[in-house]
Amino acid sequence: YTFADQLLNTDLVTSVKVRWVAKKGSGSDWQAKAGLVVGGQEYYGATVQLPTNYTVFEETFANNPATGQPWTVQDVRAAKLIYQQVTITTQLPRAKLTELVLVVSVQRMPVLATMTEKPNSDASPNQGTPTPSGAHYLNVDEDPHDSDTTVLKFAAGGNKEVYTTADQLLDTDHVQYVKVRWVAKKGSGSDWQAKAGLVVGGQEYYGTTVQLPTNYTIREETFANNPATSQPWTVQEVRAAKLIYQQVTTTAALPKAALTEIVLVVTVERAP
C-alpha cells in the first residue's frame, strides 16, 4: 500500500516502524511477515507464527534498508507498506490481517513566525487627543495604518501614550526579537520630535528621537533583547511589556502632530 503523507520537507527522520495486527486461522501453520517496499525491493521484519488472537507487531527500520543510510523524507514518502502471508493451513477459518500502518518518528524543525500584536487597552498615561473621540488605543491599532481616519493629536511636548497589547504568543515560543512599529507625522512648523518604544518593568525604553516628516512615515524600533536585562526575551516578558509613544517637542501652531499607528511586532521560533 501507499499511505497518507504527514511529513514536512524539513523533518529529520529518526526511525520508521511498520505496525501490523493479525491472527491465525484454524490449524497450526500460519506464518506471516510485514515490512516495506523501497525502490521496488521488498524488506521484511521477522517471519512469525500468527497467534490465535489479534496481536500487535512492529517492525523497526532505523535506517533505509535499501541504502543502510538514515532515512530522508523523500525516501519515506516513496516507500510502500507490504504484508505477506508466508504459510497457510488449508482449512477454515483463514488468517486475518486487521491493521497495517507506518509509524514515522521525526525531529521536527521549528519555524519562524511573526505576529503583529495590536494595542488592546489604554495603560496610562494617555495624553493625546483622540480623533474621533473614545478609547485612545482604538485610534492607533490599525496595521496597515488608516492615515487621518483615526489618529491621536499632540499639542504639548512630553505628552505620552501607553498601551497593553493583544497576546498571540504560545508558552513554548522562543522569542527572537521584538519591534515597535509606529506611524506619525508632524504638525505645522518645524520642531515636532517624537520617539516610540516599550515600557518594561515600569521603565521606559525608546528608539531614536526623530523629527517627524510632513507625511505619515512607517518606523520600526528593534529590541533584539529585553532592554531591562540585555538578555533574550522570554514569552512572559513580552506579554508584560507595554507600547509607549512620546511627543518630545511641539510647535505652538495648528495643525498638531498626529500618531495613526503603534503596534508590537514579535518574531518567534515556533514548533510546528
Notes on the structure:
The chain is mainly β. The protein has helices spanning 73-78, 235-240, and strands spanning 12-23, 31-38, 41-44, 48-49, 55-61, 80-85, 96-107, 111-117, 119-126, 129-131, 151-154, 159-165, 174-185, 193-200, 203-206, 210-211, 217-223, 242-247, 257-270. The strands form four sheets. Strands 8, 10, 11, 13, 17 and 19 form a six-stranded antiparallel β-sheet that branches. Strands 9, 12, 14, 15, 16 and 18 form a six-stranded antiparallel β-sheet that branches. Strands 2, 3, 4 and 6 form a four-stranded antiparallel β-sheet that branches. Strand 14 and strand 15 (203-206) form a beta hairpin. It is rod-shaped. The two termini are 28 Å apart. The model has no long low-confidence stretch (mean pLDDT 96).
How is the biggest beta sheet arranged? Answer: 6 strands, antiparallel
Q: What order do the SSEs take from the amino end to the carboxyl end, as H and E?
A: EEEEEHEEEEEEEEEEEEHEE
* Low-confidence regions: none
**What characteristic shape results from the CA principal axes?**
rod-shaped
- Termini gap: 28 Å
The radius of gyration is 32 Å
How many helices?
A: 2
Helix content: under 10%
The helix-and-strand class reads: mainly beta
